[in-house]
Write a structure and sequence with these properties.
2 helices; mainly alpha; single chain
């Protein structure tokens, strides 16, 4: 016999799980957007200060040293931020997958007939 109370309880549990998952995914995307925005803001500030410093350089050697240090710091910062964002994406994927991790029953053992 169909039990309406049990069906209602199951649908409430499913809805609560879905809303919790949605909240985690939304906060993950917000964290990614914040991290990307912070990176672009810092990159723009670094580029502005680099151009100002480059305008005041008097020799080719000093310009080369300035450009080298700027390229190295920009590359290091980019790799650090990209690693952080990829970690956030990995956490987001785990959070999105969590509702589907319900334990599945162990499949029955397959019994092979013995050859006579």
């Amino acid at each position: 016999m169909f039990n309406f109370d049990e069906a209602s309880r199951q649908s409430k549990v499913a809805m609560d799980g879905m809303l919790k998952s949605y909240s985690e995914v939304a906060s993950g995307f917000q964290a990614i957007a914040t991290e990307a925005g912070d990176y672009y803001k810092k990159a723009f500030q670094d580029l502005s200060s680099y151009v100002e410093a480059l305008a005041g350089v008097r020799s080719v050697e000093a310009a080369y040293d300035l450009q080298t240090s700027f390229a190295k710091s920009s590359c290091d910062d980019y790799i650090a931020r990209a690693t952080r964002i990829s970690d956030i994406y990995a956490d987001l994927a785990k959070a999105a997958y969590r509702p589907f991790e319900a334990p599945t029953p162990k499949p029955p053992a397959v019994v092979e007939p013995q050859a006579a």
